[in-house]
Amino acid sequence: MHTAEKNGDIKQLEQLIVDALTDEKRSGRPALFTPEQICQIVAMGCEKPEDSQRPISHWTARELADEAIKRGIVENISPRSAGRFFKRSRP
Question: Is 65:78 a contact under the CB 8 Å cutoff?
Fold first, then answer.
């Protein structure tokens, strides 16, 4: 048991939790898409394409990318990136 837990110090416990869940700065290129944008694209891929007036029976990476831009989820995205997000989310 941590000292903060023994003492019932809620502020210190909250800070310990935040510190544990916060990522350290990483080298390399920053992410181009936010987790929220990725979730929106994956959720869109679970919708029926015809609900978006797409004349297709199944989403393709190209169609996902085009629709994400059309809906304003992202300003620009390659079909490869859109497809990668959807593949990553499969169980």
Answer: yes
* Of the candidates 66, 65, 77, 72, the residue with the CA atom closest to the CA atom of residue 31: 77
Question: Which residue stretches of 25-78 are H helix?
Answer: 35-45, 61-70
pLDDT digits (tens, 9 = 90+) for 45-81: 899 999 989 999 999 999 999 999 999 999 999 999 9
Element (H, E) at 11: helix 10-21
Contact 58, 66 (CB under 8 A): no
The 3-state DSSP class for residue 74 equals coil
CB 29 within 8 A of CB 15: no
- pTM greater than the 0.85 cutoff: no
Collect contacts of 78-83 with beta carbons under 8 A, ≥24 apart: 81/32, 81/33, 82/41
- Name the phi and psi angles at 71, rounded to 5: -80, -10
